[in-house]
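Problem 3 from the worked examples.
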Amino acid sequence: MKKTSTKTVSKKAAKASKTATKAPELVTESEDLPLGERAYRFIREGIQQQTFLPGERLREVELAATIGLSRTPIREALARLESEGLVVHDSMKGIMVAELDYSMITELYFMREVLEGTAARLAAQHASPVEISVLEDLCEQYAQAGNDQKMLALRNRQFHDTLYQCSHNRYLIKILMTLHDTLMLVGTSTLKDPVRVKETMEEHKAVVQAIKDRDPDRAEQALRKHIHAAQKVRLKKFFSPDQ
């Protein structure tokens, strides 16, 4: 019978322990979910929270130990995330969290400007009074978030997601949700800059006011201006990550 050395066991235990302590806030919401879905949500949330960073290798064995599942659902989850562009398979490193380069970030923001501008235009035409009221409430909740980075990011995401729904175009919504998910890969939020936090609040209000006034042209331009401003901050952080 082949013996396993204490040193080898210790190394494996250390690796598993490191992975387990990295993700204390990840939640597998329901035990009733299929195992593959639980694994998918766990890893996806880890990417979103930046527990798993762009370029970081994702090892099936360590993930299985952390989540408490076998490797099969982990493999299914990673394949799904790869199809969504959130992880990639590197011939040398294996499965790793995808990284966006300068060109990819520029292309991403270009598409956001075009598509979210269209969503704002459609919202000015089709959003109901109740939906507009929800957008106004989200602007107020964003303002009340103060310096809470997690809450600012949450309210910002909720604002954009709600705006997409206000377009009442299912195909546009689907594309925008996928596009917005890709933002997980660009690094820390631009809302860490207090000046940008205030600017974002005013830009959101301008978009909502144009929608409320039923002015499609103004709504689209206000949203495009908002995304363009966010892109400038993002590229500045790309070239000067310590700022």
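Problem 4, a separate protein:
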Amino acid sequence: MKIIESDIVYLNPDLGMFESIRDMGYSVENAIADLIDNSLAAKSTQIHVDIVFDKGNSYIRIEDNGTGMDRDRLNDALTFGKKIKSTRDSDDLGRFGLGLKTASLSQGKRLSVKTAINNKEEIGVWDTDFVTNIVKGWAIKTQPFESTIDLLEKTLVCESGTIIVIELLDKLLNEKAEDSDLFYKKIDAVGDHLSLIFHRYIQGYLVEKTDIFYQGNQLKPIDPFAFSKITIKGEGKYYNNSVVVKAYILPHESKMSKADLKKASLENGFTFNQGFYLYRTNRLIICGGWLNMGDDMKSVEPTKLCRIMVDIPNEWDEVWGIDVKKSKAIIPNSIYSDVEKIVKNAYDSSKDRYIHRSKRKISDTGSYSWIWEARKSVNGKVYKINRKHPLIDQISEMEEKKDFDGLKKLLFGLIDHIEINLPITEIISDGAMNQADLSDVIENNREKLKKVTANFRKKLMDQGKSEEFINNLLGDTDLI
């Protein structure tokens, strides 16, 4: 192809794009996780993360003992969109060559990097004001600002490694630079998030063990599958076994310890943590949700025991639609049907396990030993008090004998029995799965409710109760 220079117009990015790059929607915990990816890719065995509040001088600092970088490699690492290697290693956690810059600058206006190989140190600094107002070009400084010098001092005993310092934390501080409570509230989730996302590295499970410290404390792993009595409900291996899908059912919450219940809740609560857990090169990037499984898969109460573990290598990023922030993915069409079968089986099994315990409190067969009966009707499943329960039979006998003291005790016993054995789990399950509309249930039984209310009103009037008393008693209903 013949190229004519006069036919070409070079369009260099406007400096306004620098600010746009900063606004990619990173939370502070996701930004720090992205930076830790780089430390892990550099074979670090120790990573220290500190977030310090000092009003306008607040900062984020990350230090590792990884392989470090020389000048050329550091320049490449600080170049937007630059891929350091044409072919990535199997344990490379990067994606588009953007993470170091975009994650750091999403939190503050200045990024300083000091790195060393065999104690030979190199420095690179991106600073918003320096780029847009001083040099007015896409340029880094190779010497730190005075305020950063002490923060770049090495604390780990190692000849190679990297230190990252993020300052001018406008995204964390906003206009409230004096508000330490707000600052620490924003970073409250960071420790648990890192313990979850990197739990395999912290455990040394399938990868080399890495010690990660946050605010001076060594993190303990939060493994979303580390439960006693967890059961596997299906498994599939694809693309020459490089992609593995495993479906698990957690134990019912009534069988969990307090520690397990807390762990099951993770960051978003038990119910919203069901679904897919996608590990990319042993780093957790998706925590819950049903990806592109369709509208039939919903995060509802009865299916919260279902979790799907998926392991993929980084070579399948494009196929799985991994985004820049490594927070989104889709199941490829080539394996969608197979995965769907595994997932639906586990999804249904979760419902069965969830309602298993409540089945002991109700009867679908009309057995007289149950206080509650589950019956099917034209409006769906309904729950009724068993009129032939022994307690109700005894109440009838007491009424005939005019034994009012015994009748009162039995009535309170019956009320206790109804309260204790309320099949709340199954009611929630039916409501969540069938999207039951309680207003429809009330409307369909309105005439019966009116009849009951009228009878109650007559008995009260026969007892000499005033109209005002009765209206006040029934005032919370629309049936008076």
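Solution to problem 4. The longest helix spans residues 333-356. The chain is about 35% helix and 20% strand.
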